Task: structure prediction
Amino acid sequence: MRTSLRVAVAAAASATVLLAGCAGDDDPPPAPASVSPPAAASSTAAPAATVVSWADGVCTASEELRAAVGDVSAAVPVEVAGDTAAREQVRTELSARVAAMGEAARSLGTAVTSLPPDADPAVVAAKNELQAASTRAQEAVAGVRSAAAGLTGAADAAAVAAAVPGLRSAVATARTAVAAYTEALRTTLSSAGGTVQQAFGSAPACPAATTPSP
Result:
C-alpha cells in the first residue's frame, strides 16, 4: 500500500514539472529594448573659413567698385570752365578717380577668381556666375577709362566740351553694369542656398555689397 502511494506521488510531481515546462514554452518572448534612432546629420556642412574669407573679399571688392564708379560720375563736369586752372583741376581730379576705379575693377576680378581649393561644387558654380557678371562690369569700366582719356588729354575748353558727352555716356553704362553685377550677386546668393548662402551670410562685408544702390 505504501509502495503504491509513493508511486502515485512521484507520478503527480512529474506531471506538474511537465506542465510547468509547457506553460513556459507558450510565454511570449520579451520585447526588445527600444533603441533611439541616431540624430539626423545636417544636410549642409558649414563652409570652410577660406570660403567665407573668399566671399568677404568678393563683397569688399564689389562695394569698392560701386563706390569708385560713383566717384567718377560725381567728377564729370556739368559745365566746362573757361579758366585754364579750373580745367586743370577737373582733369587732375578726374584722372585720380578714374585710376582708382580701374584699380577697383581689377581687384574685383582678382577677388572673384581667387577661389580657395577646398571650395565645393556649389561655390565653384557661384564663382562662375559672378565672374561672368563682373567681367561685363570691368569692360564697362574700361570704356570709362577710354572716354576719360579724351577729356584729360584735351588741350582747350572746346576739346573738353567735346569729350564730356562721351564720358557721361560711358559712366552711365558703367553704373548700369555695376548695378547689374550687384543684382547678379544678390540673385546668386538667393538661388544658390547651402554653403554659398552660408559663406556670404557669414562674411561681414556682404550686407552692404548686396544692397541695391539708391
